[in-house]
Amino acid sequence: MTDDPGSPTGDLLVGEPSAPSGPAGADWAAAVDAVRRLTPDSRVLLICHVNPDGDALGSMLGFGLGLRRLGLRGVQATFPGPPEVPEPFRDLPGLDLLVPAAEAYPDPDLVLCFDAASESRLGDLVDRLAVAAPAVVLDHHASNTGFGDVHLVDAGAAATSVVAEELLTRLDVPLDAEIAECLYVALATDTGSFRFDATTPDVHRMAARLLATGIRPGEISRRIFDTRPFGAVRLYGDVLGRTRLEPAAAGGHGFVWTYATLADLERHEQRPYVLEPLIDSVRCTAEADVSGVLKQIAEDGWAVSLRSKGAVDVSRVAVTLGGGGHRFAAGFTGRGTAQEVVARIRAELDSALTQARERD
């Protein structure tokens, strides 16, 4: 799950879910037209967010392969930051589309952005949005800031791959095994292997369409979810050993958290990507609705992942602290010591819940 920054939506306390508002018909038409007017040699640049996860990479690469099926030869895919693909995704079809950010087209004819809720998640690549018109944004975060020109943003979609598949359908691109594997990885990762509340009948119908191409879900799941270096197992032991439970936090709903340092990674000779699933080992705590994992990215910088089981909208908390995301999954970048960042989370949880109750 991507913890993208953005602007707040909804109430802090979870009530009835709001009706999802998908892309307007005019936006679908504009996106289709933008692709249709390309020539085989047009320069098409696909961009996903920094530190890409399965949905970002899978949606982008699956769509890029679809563009190839349309006969487009000049398709590039990229993301800001070091050009390192996390180990679980290094067997994805379409990786040959990837280029380092420094080698991406400076003046593409068309830009499509995937799974990024704000321009800040595009890093130095954000300048490409001003070059190509229109810039098409495919996303599913409720906190999307509305950047770009054509907005294929569906907050009711379980993953950005849902939006990507719909656009491929509108472009008359048939699914094949390579496209399907990319989209399946994207869908499976953002639904937690189809365990999260966003797993609707439509999600299972999409999964059925992808599986019908002949892809092997067992093999894909083992590679994505069930394979981890031994050093990462030892690292998890260290990090989980310092987990703290605060039952009175979050207005009595409970808050459980831990942190992983750069020294932890160095000691166990691991890359940062191995920490991405760590939040799932923390969020299962029965006594806490809210869970958090702080991953050190600099001497005083932390990538923070927040999760909720339903009582608290963590996207509101994350937005206040400079980030954003979804109601049940969000994040932000914190500065200071781990204890200082946790203190800000704790204070914002209590403050925001108090304000919500006063409004009621």
What would your notes on this structure say?
The longest helix is centred in the C-terminal third of the chain and has 22 residues, at 338-359. The strands form 2 sheets. A 6-stranded mixed β-sheet has the order 6-7-8-9-11-10. It is 36% helix and 16% strand. The protein has helices spanning 25-36, 54-69, 128-131, 160-170, 177-190, 201-211, 217-225, 230-240, 262-267, 278-283, 314-320, 338-359, and strands spanning 44-48, 75-78, 110-114, 135-139, 150-153, 244-246, 255-260, 290-298, 301-308, 324-325, 329-335. The chain has 360 residues and is an alpha/beta fold. It contains 12 helices and 11 strands. It starts with 24 loop residues before the first helix and ends with a helix.
Task: Give a quick set of tags describing it.
single chain, alpha/beta, five-stranded parallel β-sheet, 12 helices, globular
Cα distance, first to last residue? 31 Å
**Integer-rounded radius of gyration:** 20 Å
Q: Roughly what is the average pLDDT, rounded to an integer?
A: 90
Low-confidence segments, ≥5 residues, pLDDT <50? Answer: 1-20
Largest sheet: 6 strands, mixed
- Helix/strand order: HEHEEHEEHHHHHEEHHEEHEEH
| Number of beta strands | 11
Question: What is the 3D form?
Answer: globular
Sheet-strand content, in percent, reads: 15-25%
What is the helix fraction of residues, given as a range? 25-40%
Helix count equals 12
Major β-sheet strand ordering: 6-7-8-9-11-10
Structural class, judged by helices and strands? alpha/beta
